[in-house]
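Weekly sync, protein design subgroup
Attendees: M.S., D.O., the rotation student, P.L. (late)

Item 1: inverse folding check
M.S. brought a backbone from last month's batch and wanted to see whether the design step gives back something sensible before we order anything. D.O. pointed out we never logged the input encoding, so this time it goes straight into the notes. Structure tokens as presented (278 positions):
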């Protein structure tokens, strides 16, 4: 199974972001021919004020229906169907009444939605440069651990700040995950010190492959100030080795998910069997 992670530099203009995603996906599919690809966190609308976030959010159709969705939803569905690949839609803003969720969607090669995950851990912190982030002012928190299957591989779903909470990833491993998708928009301040360290740590702990597509570049926040995302999208193996990485700027990286490697790592070091809940 070949997997590509797409690195974007989005703004709060959804139409422009969809156009950027289309160009990058076309390049990745034409060049590397992946069986599955993934986009970053909240790539449809990064930044902007509260009103812009609600305006760009989408009301999603029922998961088991074939009803049409909004522009981003239909874009992801069309890419999956036309390219005949699994598409991990990073995450988009899902509108439910007067509440938003930071939501991942996964589509199979027929364009059917096979998974929907709402980000559980919300980013309410102050970074070392003094910038405050208050995701819970705009988004609600998800509650469910979610997996799906693609090309015979069980995929676990998580988003960005979830990365700092190992319990979620052990829950995904216990649910059968062999690979975990982690779309992100890590800040520059936290990303330069923690991003790769944490992704590799979670890969080692869970003995899972990791596909971590990320946002890069700058965007305007709610108050009209510039903020920077770290980028450095990566793919890691179950031993914690980085097997592919995107350079600075927009682009993509691709790696082959080798299930015999997963089996060997888990056989030689049976962490799940040894793990005790304390």
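Designed sequence read out in the meeting:
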């Amino acid at each position: 199974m070949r997997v590509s992670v797409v690195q974007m530099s989005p703004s709060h203009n959804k139409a422009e972001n969809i156009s950027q995603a289309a160009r990058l996906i076309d390049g990745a599919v034409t060049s590397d021919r992946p069986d599955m690809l993934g986009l970053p966190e909240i790539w449809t609308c990064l930044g902007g004020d509260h009103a812009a976030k609600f305006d760009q959010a989408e009301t999603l159709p029922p998961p088991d229906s074939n009803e049409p969705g909004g522009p981003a939803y239909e874009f992801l569905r069309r890419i999956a169907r036309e390219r005949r690949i699994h598409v991990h839609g990073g995450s988009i803003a899902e509108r439910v009444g007067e509440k938003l969720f930071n939501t991942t969607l996964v589509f199979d090669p027929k364009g059917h939605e096979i998974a929907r995950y709402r980000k559980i851990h919300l980013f309410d912190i102050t970074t070392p440069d003094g910038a405050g982030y208050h995701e819970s002012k705009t988004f609600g928190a998800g509650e469910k651990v979610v997996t799906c299957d693609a090309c015979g591989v069980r995929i676990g779903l998580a988003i960005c700040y979830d990365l700092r909470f190992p319990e979620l990833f052990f829950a995904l491993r216990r649910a059968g995950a062999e690979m975990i998708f982690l779309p992100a928009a890590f800040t520059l301040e936290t990303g330069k010190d923690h991003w790769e360290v944490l992704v590799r740590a979670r890969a080692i702990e869970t003995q899972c492959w990791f596909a971590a597509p990320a946002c890069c570049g700058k965007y305007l926040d709610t108050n009209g100030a510039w903020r920077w995302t770290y980028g450095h999208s990566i793919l890691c193996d179950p031993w914690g080795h980085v097997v592919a990485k995107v350079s600075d700027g927009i682009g993509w990286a691709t790696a082959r998910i080798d299930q015999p490697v997963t089996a060997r790592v888990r056989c030689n070091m049976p962490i799940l069997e040894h793990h005790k809940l304390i």
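Discussion: The two ends are 36 Å apart (CA to CA). Residues 14-32 form the longest helix (19 residues).
Action: P.L. to compare against the previous round before Friday.
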